[in-house]
From TrEMBL:
Pfam families: Peptidase_C1_2
Annotated GO CC locations: cytoplasm
Entries under SUPFAM superfamilies matching the protein: Cysteine proteinases
GO biological process, one term: response to toxic substance
Protein name: Aminopeptidase
PROSITE patterns: THIOL_PROTEASE_CYS (PS00139)
PANTHER family: BLEOMYCIN HYDROLASE
Alphabetical UniProt keywords: Aminopeptidase, Hydrolase, Protease, Thiol protease
GO terms, molecular function: cysteine-type aminopeptidase activity
Residues the record marks as active site: 78, 368, 391
Domain of life: Bacteria
Alphabetized InterPro entries for the sequence: Papain-like_cys_pep_sf, Pept_cys_AS, Peptidase_C1B
Length: 449
């Protein structure tokens, strides 16, 4: 059967069927009430579960105080903000100050420059190997190129190679806070470079020219990042400190000494064909050539919770994580719970997919990274009840920017946490030494926060 024949056999939406739909809608009084309410107030106001919302407590038995929340503005840098929020907690303790922030713009500058090199090297190799320009892989790489998103491992690749600097030494710019136009121009540059590769131009020349052009674009938009700086500060006891000249890499290693480079990423891939205790990798996903590969250990979500709880309660450090932040989110009040909105009751629709089905049928994937800074633990000392989340959406929403997450929402929509490798049991440590089960570039586990 040809596609044309199959389409010809489809049933059109007839006037008679439209009339049936209208009559069916009008016959249910609740539909009219829902329409009147939603058209005036919006679906979230109408569907919000009042009983559930009023019971979302903001008290936690374990809390890590990380101070004032940060704001990523109109950019997709949440993975950099959240990883640097973990790092700044460590740095603040070492510096003896409560008010400190790393430059997220500095991190983004080098992530994007490194990613240009990674992308061009990767694509040049594919072109040389005969990859068709219209293949699913090449079209996926071209479509996704030069977004703002990333992963914990990618962030640490940047910090290990390029270090970090205080925010006031490389502050935000118009483009760092609103990355759309900068990204559009970088994207056009890279796609044009791929076009040249397929036209047969010398690959190394194209790579060199593209990297130089990307460097110009990034520097024009973000400024010239410092290679060294004089570091001095006054701690919260009023004592003045002067270190003198220091490089960004030296600064990172001197003040962020919690071993973040030795963390590993745990994921909950719920699909049955991807067993727990197996290392997963994503083809063509990375940012720094020669850096740590973007790989995860697939574990039960209960183990992810245990690790996050233990890190905060035993080490007193925030925990980086990635989630699908949109479902059942009350952004204004800062809350997530699986039954926080009763959309099904308003629409008379059964939203019955579980986590595995949502991943399999493109209804859910990680799209935002944040940091856990608190957890409420039951009297048994291990059962988690709710979670306190440091977001990077500013302090005008939620509890001065901090969100509350129910434990059941964690189970359904959290996909990834970064934890010290030393926390893993022997069998998981051994799994990290085995080759990763490689998934295609478009697999949902390769989604970027």
């Amino acid at each position: 059967m040809t596609a044309e024949t199959a389409i010809a056999d489809f049933a059109p939406l007839s006037d008679a069927r439209l009339a049936e739909l209208r009559e069916g809608f009008d016959s249910r009084e609740a539909n009219r009430i829902a329409m009147n309410a939603v058209t005036d107030a919006g679906i979230d106001k109408v569907a919000r579960n009042f009983d559930r919302a009023r019971l979302m407590q903001r008290r936690f038995s374990v809390t890590v105080d990380n101070g004032k929340v940060t704001s990523q503005a109109r950019s997709g840098r949440c993975w950099l903000f959240s990883s640097l929020n973990v790092a700044r907690f460590v740095a603040k303790k070492n510096l003896g100050i409560k008010d400190f922030e790393f430059s997220q713009s500095y991190a983004m500058y080098f992530d994007k420059l490194e990613r240009v090199n990674y992308f061009m090297q990767d694509v040049a190799a594919l072109v040389a190997a005969g990859e068709p320009s219209d293949s699913r892989l090449m079209q996926h790489l071209l479509h996704d190129v030069m977004g703002d998103g990333g992963q914990w491992t990618m962030a640490l690749n940047v910090y290990v190679k390029h270090g970090a600097v205080p925010k006031d030494l490389f502050p935000e710019t118009a483009s760092s806070q609103n990355t759309g136009q900068m990204n559009t121009n970088l994207r056009a540059l890279l796609r044009g470079a791929v076009c040249k590769l397929y036209a047969g131009e010398d690959a190394q020349s194209v790579i060199d020219e593209t990297l130089a052009a990307a460097h110009r674009i990034l520097t024009i938009h973000l400024g010239t990042p410092p290679t060294s700086f004089d570091w001095e500060w006054t701690d919260d006891d009023g004592e003045f400190h002067r270190v003198g000249e220091i490089t960004p890499v030296e600064f990172w290693h001197k003040y962020v000494d919690a071993g973040l480079e030795d963390y590993v990423c745990l994921v909950d891939d719920p699909r049955a064909e991807h067993p727990k205790g197996v290392k997963i990798g994503i083809e063509h996903l990375g940012n720094v050539v020669g850096g740590t590969p973007t790989e995860y250990l697939n574990v039960p979500v209960s183990f992810m919770k245990e690790c996050a709880r233990r890190i905060m309660s035993e080490q007193g450090i925030p925990v980086w994580f990635g989630a699908d932040c949109h479902p059942m989110m009350d952004r204004e009040n800062g809350a997530w719970a699986t039954d926080l909105f009763e959309y099904g009751r308003v629409y008379d629709v059964d939203y019955a997919m579980d986590k595995e089905e949502r991943v399999r049928f493109a209804d859910s994937a990680m799209n935002h990274a944040m940091a856990f800074v608190g957890v409420d633990v039951a009297d048994d000392g291990t059962t988690t009840r709710r979670w306190r989340v440091e977001n990077s959406w500013g302090d005008k929403i939620a509890d001065k920017g901090y969100f509350t997450m129910s434990d059941d929402w964690f189970s359904e929509y959290v996909y990834e946490v970064a934890v010290p490798k030393s926390m893993l049991p022997k069998e998981y440590q051994e799994a990290l030494t085995t080759p990763a089960l490689m998934l295609p570039a478009w697999d949902p586990m390769g989604a970027l926060a």
